[in-house]
Design a protein that fits this description.
The protein is α/β, with parallel strands linked by helices. It has two domains: 121 residues, Aspartate Aminotransferase, domain 1 (Alpha-Beta Complex), CATH 3.90.1150.10; 241 residues, Type I PLP-dependent aspartate aminotransferase-like (Major domain) (Aspartate Aminotransferase, domain 2), CATH 3.40.640.10. Strands 2-8-7-6-5-3-4 form a seven-stranded mixed sheet, sandwiched between helices. A four-stranded antiparallel sheet has the order 9-10-13-12. Strand 9 and strand 10 form a beta hairpin. It is globular, with a radius of gyration of 21 Å. The protein starts with 17 loop residues before the first helix and ends with a helix.
């Protein structure tokens, strides 16, 4: 069946996401799926117990639009402890249906026709469509290799009177790079006395390695006062399918955020919010997440050491990039497909994270997996 009239797509250049394609290929060919960013190990039994307990207790109707207040309070307390930043649980935080919804809502609450938004590439695939759906103009700026850092002199040249927003992501998906204190001070300097809003995607805040400290915009008052800061319970608690996150922002920005939020989602899963509040107040489980994933990263690197894949530095997130140029000169999209079909390991080609594909012969692998899964995948990679 088809609509008999004219369909004028607002996203005419957008098709099925690479994540859907590669996960579908993995399933079709029985490959080990290291493409999409989700764990294959269980959620905390205690968190599941609390979730079930609150469903049985009857907490199954709409939650307040901004979110269950005790959860908002717990999050504000956590932020104050980690980043010495003070947020009002009533006016400066909203519980969302995952990080992606928070990012979209932040963009749609601010961006109007013709506004420019600076996006650093490679970029997570939800950023640009959200900008375009709201009539904004994405202005892409490529991170500089091999460590994927921001050239702030280039940013200065890109900023003009039409620049309404800058989007940052640390730790970064897909590269695993992180922003430093120097980066944050540069961003602060560039946005000073300008009408620029920041969207800071920090969903991997608790997955950072080698003794580095997460540089949240909330550590910097002059950045915090102009920022929507986005987080994910799914990334922290290994439950990506629950689609729960939150956004923090100054009261006047959050007021605009909630105007859009109330007509798109309105409220988020009630028993889950009750469970998360209880869990956070009894178990500071996020404190061990970085060490947990650093062991996963180190194991994956050790297991693939004898392969012909060359690892790039990964300072955060649960993604490891590998350069395969010593193996093949195929396009990364073609090699990723062949790797899945012929060798049984699914990955993501990094070129798809660019508006105009840039092929550095690099693939992204997710190491948020059971050790046994990583061992099996690495054995296959070492045979190539």
């Amino acid at each position: 069946m088809n609509f008999p009239g004219t369909v004028k797509s607002k996203l005419h250049k957008t098709g099925t996401t690479i994540f859907t394609i590669m996960s579908g290929l993995a399933q079709e060919h029985g490959a080990i799926n290291l493409s999409q960013g989700f764990p294959d190990f269980p959620v905390s039994p205690e968190l599941i117990r609390l979730y079930h307990e609150h469903m049985l207790a009857g907490h199954n109707q709409y939650a307040p639009m901004p979110g269950y207040r005790p959860l908002r309070e717990a999050l504000c307390n956590k932020i104050e402890k980690l980043y010495t930043a003070t947020y009002d649980p009533d006016t400066e935080i909203t519980i969302t249906a995952g990080g992606t919804q928070a990012i979209y809502t932040a963009i749609t609450s601010i961006i109007k026709e013709g506004d420019e938004v600076i996006v650093f590439e490679p970029a997570y695939d939800c950023y640009v469509p959200a900008i375009e759906l709201n009539g904004g103009i994405p202005v892409q700026l490529q991170l500089k290799g091999p460590d994927f850092h921001i050239d702030w002199n280039e940013v200065k040249k890109m900023v003009n009177q039409r620049t309404r927003m800058i989007m940052i992501n640390t730790p970064h998906n897909p590269t695993g790079s992180i922003l430093t204190a120097k980066d944050m001070l540069q961003l602060e300097k560039i946005t000073h006395n300008r009408d620029i809003v920041i969207v800071s995607d920090e969903v991997y805040e608790h997955i950072i390695f080698d003794g580095y400290e997460h540089q949240s915009v909330m550590r910097y008052p002059k950045l915090a006062e102009r920022s929507f800061v986005v987080f994910s319970f799914g990334k922290t608690y290994h439950a990506t399918g629950w689609k729960a996150g939150y956004c923090m922002a100054p009261a006047n920005l959050m007021a605009e955020f909630r105007k859009a939020h109330q007509f798109t989602v309105f409220s988020v899963n009630t028993p889950l919010q009750y469970a998360l509040a209880d869990y956070m107040n009894s178990t500071p489980s996020y404190e061990s997440v970085s060490a947990f994933y650093q062991k996963k990263r180190d194991l994956f690197l050790k297991l693939t050491k004898k392969s012909r894949f060359k690892p790039l530095a990964c300072s955060g997130s649960y993604f490891q990039l590998f350069d395969y140029s010593a193996i093949s000169q195929e396009k990364d999209t073609d090699f990723a497909v062949r790797l899945t079909k012929e060798f049984g390991v699914a990955s993501i080609p990094v070129s798809v994270f660019y508006k105009n594909p840039v092929d550095h012969k690099i693939l992204r692998f997710c190491f948020a997996k059971e050790d046994e899964t990583l061992e099996k995948a690495a054995a296959k990679l070492c045979q190539i």
